[in-house]
Amino acid sequence: MSTPLISDAKKRWQQELAAAPSRPQPATTVSGLPIEPLYTSDDLDNFSDEKRLGYPGQYPFARGVHANMHRGQLWTMRQFAGYGTARQTNERFRFLLEKGQTGLSTAFDLPTLMGLDSDHSQSRGEVGRLGVAVDTIDDVRQLFAGIDLEQVSVSMTINAPAFVIMAYYVAAAVDGGFDPRKLRGTLQNDILKEFHAQNEFIFPPTPSVKLVVDVIEYCTKHVPLWNTVSISGYHIREAGSTAVQELAFTLADGMHYVEQCLERGMNVDDFAPRLSFFFNAHNDLFEELAKYRAARRLWADLMKNRYHAQRESSWKLRFHAQTAGCSLQDKQPEVNLMRVAYQAMAAVLGGCQSLHTNSMDETLALPSEHAATLALRTQQVLAYETGVTNTVDPLGGSYFVETLTDQIQQQAEEYFERIEQHHGMVAAIETGFFRREIGDAAFAFQQAVDAKQKVLVGVNDFQQPDEKPLPLLELDESAERDQLQSLEQIKKQRSRDDVRRTTDELKRVAETGTNVMPALMETARARVTVGESMQVLEEIFGRYRLGAAW
Amino acid sequence: MSLRLDSMNETDRPQRIVLAKIGLDGHDRGIKVVARGLRDHGFHVIYAGLWQAPEAVVQAVADEDADWLGISILSGAHMTLLPDLLNLLRQQGSGNVKVMVGGIIPEADIQKLQQLGVTGVFGPGTPMEDIVEFLRERR
Amino acid sequence: MSDWTELFERFRQKDRQALARLLSHATQSEGAEIIRTQITPRPTGSVIALTGNGGVGKSSLVGRIAERLRKDGIQVAVLACDPESPYTGGALLGDRIRMSPLASDPGLFIRSVATSGGRQAVAENLDLMCQLLLEYGFEIVLIETVGAGQADVAVRELADILVLLVQPETGDELQWEKAGLLEVADVVVVNKADLPGADTVMAQLQGQLNLPGCRPVPIFKVSATQGEGLDELWRAVQELRTEN
User: Fold this and answer.
1) Low-confidence residues in chain A, pLDDT < 50
2) Looking at CA atoms only, how far is residue C204 from chain A in angstroms?
3) Of C97, C100, C170, Cβ closest to residue A421
4) What is the pTM of this model?
5) What is the predicted ipTM?
6) Which CATH number belongs to the domain containing residue C114 in this structure?
């Protein structure tokens, strides 16, 4: 109840507000959520500290998944890298580890991402361009040469042929003397978001999800420290979605995977602790912060109350964050340094477990060494100089942040209902529901920018006509040639009998619907290529064509 | 509405533009925004989709009797793929179809592409108005 | 006028680009008039139209049927229709991507058509376009229409065989009935056969359509995405073609 004193102050404030100037751009979040000029205790009238906030490391984890978060242990600084041949990427990996990076993150080239070999006709001009080219187990071995895979955690960003790459990785690691039970890392392996946003899919949704579950099942038994999926919102956001859509669609995907694993007879507490997430870190610090906190609360509730997981570790949403690629501009690219810094802060305040900060020149080319170093330094300044790591969830309890967190959570729940109205995830995909929502949001954003309702510094305001170009990374065009040569050699040297035997076995296993991982490890050892393994499976599962909404 | 009158000229026919992505690159945010934007400005946009083989694109341009072809390519493989496509267009007899390219294209390559016959190149974030004006001016 | 003469000359010599040009002219009243004087009436049994609400899977099904026809060596043309915005005059024509694996096949011709509202516009233009395609040499023209509304009743007049596509609904089950299309369809197809509710819809349709004394209307269950049920569908359509 307000005393007369507070009432006067509020009245006065409201009067002054009415007379105060207002700026031309509407006061909304980056995603378009309208924001009030002020938040007070009135906004948190019915707020229950216990239910909505709790303690870090305890249900519902709004404040974080560990008791002391970054105060105890910094997030992993995990910069994405990969280009050219395995040898070249291996060099970059070792360079980054030397510079203080604490985990590896592998970028693959487009042909590899699409399950094609470097010598496929469609791969021309694309080999080793946007990531490392991997065709056989030899490339995997070379990629991680000289790196202790039991000490360094390795993330691999790949989806459609994720299960193939994982099998090749495990086979290479085992043959290299590592204990699979000690291997640590993450496989992105999130095919659903490909259908929503990134378009790196090959087979139709149902068999694709089956293969995701194969990895979860296999690793739960044999590679228990491995994060089997990185359920991603990053790409959904990059495709133009709002923060709420990013959150809702990601968790809906997570729910589908959980349900499929349960349907296979797996025990939720066996696999759930190793499901991880991957979110975007966009410009609007508070919206992002609210998104992460809402994500933890929502997931905890789903795992505990819908899927009846018993272990606390099954309820915890752990996530990797990457600063928003779509927010980087090619005009005045050094300004991107500041964008990335603010975005990184949002991710850290939001309690991320690992973080990738983009390089300023990433819209123009693969990062130069200088730009890549600055990106890493961004995280180091954040960690050591800003003081944000001194306490857990520093913004918890803020009238604004808690209100926004509730709001975003509620809107995400509304989306869950809408998705449920379709006949399940796969049916919703086929009606184009997700793509339409994302496409509409992307269009609305561009319209707002074109109308100057959203200002992009250097782009639609504060332009600089006479810019000097940044020194960019020169791509070594010899990578494609080298890769093709070594692939040709491998194909000559390997045993045709072994190739036939192992691919026949793969075919047999896939046709019976059994887990394909062991058979794939054998094809790996026979030096069957990624493309050849995928080809066997495509003949069984078919190729997916985009349906109702493109 | 003035928008509609704007898109009609002496022949009274809306311009037809085929939008497609070639190569393996799957980023379609930009091309879909452009598609919607052009529709809102009175164009008939024929969206041909992702991973299009150059022969398929050329066939589409011919069969749809398109005035323009818009290619989006963000993987960096433009200098490998676009010259071939332009050649095929000429061979098919569609050499007079105007071509615009969207994507991340370095300055030096923009000039090369223009020499090969590309009418315009647009980077990410180009305002819709600029693209529309460009297309209308060259009707 | 010599331009027209040359254009028709090339068309008669099977110049595909001349066909494409004439199709464009056919959408304009001035050009349409001229073309009408030069074109012979078309053979019957060659125009098959697919209609139904948005999201029901028409383009996927058309793509599958076209695939099937091509396998039998039949030359197919597709007219894929989408609505033109009444405010801007623009249109987003995205149906051809569902047929993309075949897109560089010379025996297949896909044309995207923006249809403005109103009965007149649709019937005239499409009719002429069909005639052009058939005269050029395509054996079958598949028309994929916009879906439920005035324009589709016009398509009934134009098509030799009208296929109505429905799906297991989550809500408004009687939508297609409202448009009166159920009465005029020659074949009814329930798409997305793998979804729950497909059999219920089949039963409902049987109840409404094939009452004693009525003209029998074959009803099929298909899954365009899985490619199931297409053979039976095509057989029925073939039968209707011969009846025509």
Assistant:
1) none
2) 20
3) C170
4) 0.92
5) 0.90
6) 3.40.50.300
